[in-house]
Amino acid sequence: MSGSEDGALEERLKAALWFSIGKIVDEETLKLGVNATPQFIGALTEMLWAQIGMSESPLHRIHSLTTASENVSEDLQRFAKHAGREVISAEDVLLLARRNEGLETILRKCLDQQLADRQKAAKRK
Length: 125
Hints:
Blueprint: H1 3-32, H2 38-51, H3 58-82, H4 90-96, H5 101-124
């Protein structure tokens, strides 16, 4: 890819990231009854952009993402196998996230909410 094509691709990726983050922030602020400014969404986008290493070339990013996703899937498969299962469970995902407290907290909260919703639905039947 030429430098201008790289720049155009980077801008499109960043715009897509900004849009996705904006949608998530909008959903969460509605639930919480608070407001988020466009500056907050922009700052969050910039922070995430820096965290995921988007300053690298597009081909390097694709390779890095592919390698990371392969590592995640292999780790999840190993956790399930170690537990004597053939199917990956939510507990395997939580185990994978254990070194990232924030992520683990979010995942555990989501899992707890899903379990509570299932229990409510089962009681209605």
